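User: two proteins, same treatment. go.

Assistant:
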Amino acid sequence: MTHDKKQQLYISVGVVTLLLLIRIVFFLKDGTNDFIERILFWLIYGGSFVVLYFLFSPLKQNLLYIWNNNKSKIFIFAYIIVLEVLFALKNNLNYTFVSAFSVLFIVSLFFIVSVLLPRMLAKIFDIAFIIVYGAYMFAQDFYYRIFSDFFSFIEAGTLREGVESSSNMYVFNYLHLVIVFMIILTLFLYIRYYDKNKFKGKKINLLKYIAVLFLLVNLNAEYPVKAARLHLSDHYLYTSTYSKTRFVSHFGGINLLTKDVISLIIPDVSNKKHIEYINDYYENNQKPHVDNEYTNIFKDKNLIIVLAESFDDIALSEELTPSILKLKNEGLDFTNHFTPVFPRTTCDTEIILNTSLIPSIQDGPTCYVYNQNSYNTSIANLFNNKDYVTNALHSNYKEFYTRHLVYKGLGYNNFYGQHEIGLSDSDRRYDEVFMDMSKDYVINTENKFYSMMLTLSGHSPYTNVNLAVEKNYDLVDEYYQFKH
């Protein structure tokens, strides 16, 4: 790079950095200067491409040389960019100002890793990456269609459950065909041209490109300056991954894959600090119970909880669900209740119901990560302390989501699954059969009891493949056709 080119690069970087400082210092995200701030966003974004031009323009004199000697790497680069763009378009992801630079940055890192590896290891790394990345994007697209979110490798423990639950929900689309085609094509081109290609150039110069791309990522990132708006920060989004959909929109699927792999390799060492913080918080924020109008109104009564899978009040009617409607109208109706829509909603909802704790969205499936925990303040243990018999029942087999371990930790005296109750593979899909065959386990005639029942009929798939749907479809359809 000539002296003039270096000067142009430094000036362009300085101008873009100055624009960012102006935006942060004078145009806070307080809703009063959104128009001007948006202009600054676009100026920074456009200026960043000017920086890229000055960064890469010295290479244009050697384009043919670069092409002839680095075809295999260029094919991988094109493969990633094409899949990222198609993936975003197909799933209606709103890429932001930082998206392009974050993808370019991580692709450059992969390029450097490949270049620094010995020749044979580099070839293995490249081929493995082509296959894994394509398969990953394929799986994420399928997963997103079902859950409207993306998965993490840490949730691999629920793979079996996910396959069982969604085996009849796969719908082929053009992106899947494109991904398979791109994997095959990229592998063919890579292998075809690999022997003729070995990176030629000063590897130290690669760090310059990485450094500038990293700078551009940060120049185009969102910087809320108030703590109350921390969740709007791209840096907070990247470190917390509180929303994987938002993460992919901002950083691309390849960054989620990279962060996922790193999180598996490098363990989280912050647990001890978190535990100390939580213990300290509860010790210093204890709230004594204050009697109210509901205190002891159900003292010494028995309790049966029915956790209805996917139930919605749209199903409430005098004709179809008279008993449930009666409970709603004549009992206590708690409407201020919300369930986080995590990929493993059923399992996490069971934890919420039993403990009043919101599970982590980062630590992986609660039913696997925390199935050895003891929950001393769970609802089952509260009843145990009052000499109740506590039982939990579900019409699926008890090992699903490791419920045989989870419910032991929750304090239940017994957990009865499909085989303990005596349900066949077809009968377990019908809640009425489950209820009928569970009576003797639910109702204890000799002692006070608390029983929790988890239904299955409302579980996916939501088509006639579901035996419960097939049985009741005509009745429900006729009712709503008549109603409307």
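Protein 2:
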Amino acid sequence: MTEPLVLLGEVRTGLLPTLSALSTEQMTELLKLVPGQPVRMWQRPSARAISSDTAVGVDCQLATPSHKNARAIGTAASHGVILGGRIVQSSSSVQVVRASKPRRMVWQHYLSQVGTMELINRVGEDGTAATELIDGFLHNSRDDTLDLGSISDLLFTRLRTDAGLGNRSPFRTKPTRLRWAARVESADARAVSREGSLAFRLQDESTRMVLITIPHAANLLAVQRFCEDLAAHDWLLTTLEDVLAGVEQEEHPRDVITRLAPPLEHLAHLWMPGAHTPPSLREFWRWLDDEPGFSRQWAVKLGQLRDRLSGAALTLACAESPTGVGQLTPGPHDRLVRERSGIAGVMRNIFWRNR
């Protein structure tokens, strides 16, 4: 098989609709998408499970800004990912290569190379073709061109609606999608820099676009792992921002606690940028921490959430005490707040000073 012109992919990310995090056994059971195929599992630094790839046959046009005829035939590869028993992802991708013959082959030929689409038409030289296919996929997709989003969404829906989950989430969230494209740098670009490049853009409230160039084709398959890691952390940051925006509408301290305590309990410990990115691409995370400052944004938002939660708990304690300062009236989230956000120690100090 020839070297890929480009890699194209899309990742859907969201919260599993279950009140408690899935165990290792439950994660494995949910991701048994292909009978007889294993589910890959990592326990350190955090639990992560990946299903085997499923193949979806595709025969369609690839989008190009010049609207050139770019028919490609093959299969898209899709798999599911679960992080920490809480975050679920569906990830679909294809690598586009030039067809050895300018005609359609029997399907057995395409099924033998899952995740590969063969470009029947020339489109242009390799560099030109790669640019056309990337620009088309990221910015000029149409209804009649490759739609990895729909393929990924089918698997995402299948995982989230599994009967064993219970369909009950600890709080409301919105899914996000990350569309990405990757290519190997030209020889001229490699002469200037051997590190590759990364462009990340927020398209709208739920859609992100990523363009990656890497110096060597050997790193292409690692790009999907990086994009899944990036999509998970972008979703975490987006969810925290949405939670903080939503709590502004709450006036009663107990309602604030009800909104803020669950995200702190279920999501805060999952922030580990780069933990599941292959070593060859971890430099991209250093760039993301420099600009746009992913980890700084997370630290600020998490601090805001904890401060708001602490303030609500203190306000509630004072309001419900006969003397203005006292213990909280038992409520559904009071114990959770004391245990998860360190309020108990603060309260003890206040009570002691007022005795």
